[in-house]
Task: structure prediction
Amino acid sequence: MKKALRVPVEKLGEEPYASVMCYPKPDKRELKKRLKELEKLGVKALEFKGAKEVAKLKVLGKGCVGIVVTAYKNNEKTALKIRRVDADRARMYHEAEMLEKANSVKVGPKLLDVSRNFLLMQFIDGELLPEWLEKPVGKNVVKRVLREVLEQCWRLDKAGLDHGELSHAPKHVIIDGKGEPFIVDFETASVNRKVSNVTSMGQFLFISGITAERVAEKLGGVDKKVLIKALRVYKRDKNRENFEKILTACGLLKQHSS
Result:
């Protein structure tokens, strides 16, 4: 396995690292400000590895708002989101606020720090849900993980925080090495719109798409008519009883015999 490239902050002003720091348009003045910001955050080095590529360097993630890389703060491995210079927002504070709210109900990677251009978070060492489902994981383990994903969505619903991207979430759920799921990427999250975390995730996992097909292979199919009805009832009245009807329809909650 190729060794990951770890670069100290002092070297990040050089290419090709500068192109990641100020993606997609390197700017000397902006770069200088960003390097000072990193120092204030206590970041000592970045590590370039991952499935995505920017400026011929490996990174953990690449989106419309930012580039995610591994960062080291006081020898602690963290995840750093770097705001793109062409992002549709001027700062990272909103996403930090949304992640902090998610953290308050035990959802998402832990928020560690934030500045104008950087979001520092807990590093989740794991696999995206679709990749994890390709592994020879036992049926009961899959059930436990999917139930926990939906439980996290329930907690977000109760907190009034809508993630915004869970109806198609192949990149938004990471399963760590201990089999614990994390919902990630709260950049489009909002407390100002109607929440739909449970209903969106229920559709993604069990109703349609490649992930739903893989889940069906692992667990057996669900009665989609029953599940859709349960989702509609929950959408009208988001109480615990209606949520548990969704879990039952998904085969994740045993029905108690009377």
Observations:
- Residues 185 and 224 are 28 Å apart (CA to CA).
- Residues 139-159 form the longest helix (21 residues).
- The chain has two domains: 5-122, 126-249.
- The chain has nine helices and twelve strands.
